[in-house]
Design goal:
This protein folds into three domains: 2-60; 63-181, Rna Polymerase Sigma Factor, Chain: A; 188-241. The protein contains ten helices and four strands; from the N terminus they run αβααβαααααβααβ. The protein has helices spanning 2-16, 23-32, 39-51, 68-81, 89-100, 104-124, 132-147, 156-206, 212-219, 223-232; strands at 20-21, 55-56, 210-211, 240-241.
């Protein structure tokens, strides 16, 4: 439990540093938790962090986790963003302050300024079960919402930090929800396969299609669960008579 908690702290630290930690920081966190790991064990920790897209000493290359389709999309999207006018740090601060005061033009300009940052944040979450295009879309929606919620910020720096945090939270939520949907889909696929196999087995024994009620009695599944599994297959269970 202590080891798992320590890994969580290391991951949290990495997030604050742009998804990168130094080997010294990892070693310090482990030693603080009272753990002395050998070289082989440390390498296992580093491997685990890399699966979380956390770089050791330097950021991971997001292109290692992008498909060819995602790379093409990213190139095209970044090409579009090149048309946006550049701003200096001073101009960005002034625009942020105006947006905080409620200026509509400043809010729109601030959204444009942050669009490239949305891309950079999305690249940090590449390869975690969501398409880059979807992550950027979620980030852009969150960006527009965040710009409307700057009245509580005390200064431009805090406002910019709040925008970045909302973008990251939106992407993390999307990844989590996407993973939950995948798990649900996988579970349904297993259930549908079980129904298919049992229906085929019973049909061969009886020499005819089996009814939903018969399959329910044999498997212990409710008739609604069976019908739901059938719907998942596109009603493509040839050994089952779903009309009875």
């Amino acid at each position: 439990m202590i080891f798992a908690q320590t890994l969580e702290k290391i991951c949290a630290l990495a997030k604050e540093q742009g998804n990168v930690v130094s080997a010294a920081q990892v070693q310090e966190a482990l030693e603080t938790a009272g753990m002395q790991l050998g070289e082989e064990q440390l390498n296992l920790v580093y491997d685990y962090l890399k699966t979380k897209k956390i770089g050791i000493g330097e950021p991971v290359d997001p292109f290692d986790y992008l498909s060819e389709e995602e790379v093409d999309y990213l190139d095209s999207y970044l090409e579009e963003l090149k048309n946006l006018p550049e701003v200096s740090a001073g101009e960005k601060e002034a625009i942020t302050l105006s947006a905080m005061a409620g200026d509509l033009n400043a809010k729109q300009r601030l959204i444009e300024i942050f669009l490239p940052q949305v891309v950079e944040i999305a690249k940090l979450y590449a390869g975690q079960g969501a398409y880059l295009e979807d992550l950027i879309g979620e980030g852009n929606v969150s960006l527009m919402m965040a710009v409307e919620m700057l009245d509580c910020a005390e200064n431009a720096k805090q406002a910019e930090g709040s925008i970045a945090s909302m973008i990251m939270e939106a992407m993390e939520t999307y990844i989590t929800e996407n993973a939950d949907q995948k798990k649900a889909g996988d579970a349904m696929a297993v259930k549908a396969n079980d129904v298919l196999e049992k229906a085929e087995e019973m049909a061969k024994e009886l020499g005819r299609k089996v009814t939903v009620a018969e399959l329910s009695e044999e498997t212990g599944m409710s008739t609604e669960q069976i019908r739901e599994a059938v719907r998942y297959t596109g009603d493509n269970i040839e050994y089952l008579d779903t009309k009875q």
